[in-house]
């Protein structure tokens, strides 16, 4: 059953078997996309563990390591809108498959390229980032047609669950592979896992992936007017900044935590599995928060109340996470530090059920993928800026605590901006007036 048939069934009040089939298919799509995020972050994070051993072999100082880790984001910010645009024309299945295959191949080639020259490695990381940059806009394009409003928080947070699980897997498995087989095999093992996902995605979607069915979706022309709806509303600027702030703290933590624990607490590379704990805790915490927020949203009948719920989730998440992050920088014991960081990321993950989930219903569903592309483009400058900035702050202040305070201030500012600048409806509009049907829209496609 394809998405168009699901939509027709929704209008005609189809039978329970057909409705059950639609629900199961929707959940399967969400699961596959979450697994894609898991693979994405495995291939992104492994270098932050491997770079400790690679730096000793190739003689890289801290500033140079920051440039290598940050190179990924130069490519990442360039492909966000491109990915959304291609998904809108050709469908999410094809573009997502090509993107995953591309970054998996580049992950496998990383050890070879690293031994050729440093510039070659940096170019490889930029192109790898370009491939990974297409993933989230394409996934949001898919979600916009399949995910109903009352499941938006949990569906979005399921992607974060995949992100956290991929980060945990990378931090746990990478030290083991490095110790027993060498740092090169980290890239080989995780790179081939991406091709395994491609095979599953290809088999799953072989009979139900029509290209975008609407005439609007098939329009291949590009004009600046298409981006105006993504640049005008002040609400979207708040979402963009929250995304930037979230990524700033998350990317600095993911990329520099192994090095921080190694320098601050003398943890050896084979002990860096402890880096996984914060993300192991954050994943189920974010999922629990999302179910709680969705439950509140399901019980409210007005749009004003729904906006207030999103604001509250965003504020509590960012402010709570920022406070715990400051405490994390002052910890004098490695295990205590990791526990406090786990608390920080778990609290901050509540904000995802606010500003992030709001994206699915901020604009017409046909523009959701493009919205995520623009948002990811803006927000991922935090990786371009933040990862090397962290090494600069550490070098100039000789203090990692200053790095974590900087991240906490950015999170706090996001909470204030979203709370006071987000627009609320001028009239008491019923939430049901803006909800989409429980079945996918006619133009929903993989």
UniProtKB/TrEMBL annotation:
Subcellular localization, as worded in the UniProt entry: Membrane
KW Membrane (keyword) present: yes
InterPro entries for the chain: MFS, MFS_dom, MFS_Na/Anion_cotransporter, MFS_trans_sf
Domain of life of the source: Eukaryota
Keywords: Membrane, Transmembrane, Transmembrane helix
Swiss-Prot/TrEMBL GO biological process terms: monoatomic anion transport
PANTHER family: MAJOR FACILITATOR SUPERFAMILY (MFS) PROFILE DOMAIN-CONTAINING PROTEIN (PTHR11662:SF40), SOLUTE CARRIER FAMILY 17 (PTHR11662)
TM segment ranges: 29-55, 67-87, 94-114, 120-143, 155-173, 185-204, 236-257, 277-297, 309-328, 399-420
Domain Major facilitator superfamily (MFS) profile: 29-426
Pfam annotation, one family: MFS_1
Membrane topology: Multi-pass membrane protein
Entry annotated with the keyword Coiled coil: no
Subcellular location, principal: membrane
GO function terms (MF aspect): transmembrane transporter activity
Listed name of the protein: Major facilitator superfamily (MFS) profile domain-containing protein
Gene Ontology cellular component terms for the protein in this record: membrane
